[in-house]
Write a structure and sequence with these properties.
Elements: E1 7-11, H1 17-26, E2 32-36, H2 48-64, E3 69-72, H3 75-88, E4 94-95, H4 101-107, E5 112-117, H5 119-123, H6 125-134, E6 139-144, H7 148-153, H8 160-175, E7 180-183, H9 192-198, E8 204-206, H10 209-222, E9 234-237, H11 241-251, E10 258-260
Parallel strand pairs: 1-2, 1-3, 2-9, 3-4, 5-6, 5-7, 7-8, 9-10
């Protein structure tokens, strides 16, 4: 029997829509719920304790909406809160995000890997453990990107301000011989067209949205919880719902109704 309960996905803001797109492409038969915690974006500069509290609140809300699985479509939220959520909800399929250090380390030819990410992700113990486990034989150059999340939140994917900011972040990586670049925040895949203009064609971009969708499919299949009757995707924002509604056509590819989340 199919399980047509929805999948709940959340992020600090609109970045997780990049993951939601991959889930929809991989699992078009599933119903989806998406919550943008835009009232508290970006998570990258917040304390782990604050982020864990947000994860608990949002997870409880999405489960209250009937979600059969949860996806933390945020590297920073995963680093801070995924372990606690798994303890709280041991029977709920739960998928998190982490920077794609392993595939990047395997892909590099120069031995130099760059990472664009938020400060919170780069400072996390989870990220340090990834480096120790998968990147001992390569040089990893990390680049925090303050302000970049806010550009994507505003739907400014090709503005002069976004271009200038992104150029500032990638130039040092280019100069140090990086040939593989990890997009360590779910907001950043929306900047791939701009990055293609700013980076040499020899640099490979790596993100984890597609891998998350594959992992989610595998978990649901193993538990016999795949759906076969999708409903319209539902959206919430803890910020101004109109702002999320305005960027949905750009980042999601279609319009949608957005409700306010007051948790």
């Amino acid at each position: 029997m199919a399980d047509n309960a929805p999948i709940g996905v959340f992020d600090s803001g609109v970045g997780g829509l990049s993951v939601l797109r991959e889930i929809r492409a991989r699992l078009p038969q599933e119903s989806l719920l998406y919550l943008a915690d835009s009232g508290h974006v970006p998570y990258g500069e917040k304390s782990p304790e604050f982020i864990r509290e947000r994860c608990r609140s949002i997870a409880a809300f999405l489960l209250g909406q009937g979600a059969k699985a949860l996806v933390l479509a945020c590297n920073t939220a995963t680093a801070a809160g995924v372990s606690e959520l798994r303890e709280l909800y041991p029977d709920i399929p739960l998928v998190g995000m982490e920077p794609a250090v392993k595939p990047a380390a395997q892909a590099t030819r120069s031995g130099v890997v760059g990472v664009l990410a938020t400060t919170g992700t780069l400072k996390s113990a989870k990220f340090a453990a990834l480096l120790d486990r998968f990147a001992s034989n390569v040089r990893v150059i990390t680049q925090p990107c303050p302000g970049l999340v806010e550009c994507v939140e505003a739907g400014e994917l090709d503005s002069e301000a976004t271009r200038s900011l992104l150029q500032t972040f990638v130039q040092p990586l280019i100069e140090q011989g990086c040939d593989t670049l990890i997009l360590g925040c779910t907001h950043y895949p929306f900047l791939k067209p701009l990055l293609a203009e700013l980076l040499p064609t020899t640099i490979t971009l790596v993100d984890t949205g597609e891998a998350v969708a594959r992992h989610l499919e595998a978990i649901l299949s193993t538990r016999d919880r795949l759906g076969d009757k999708p409903a319209a995707t539902r959206f919430w924002s803890s910020g101004d719902p109109r702002r999320l509604a305005d960027v949905l056509p750009v980042l999601w590819g279609e319009t949608g109704m957005v409700d306010e989340y007051r948790g």
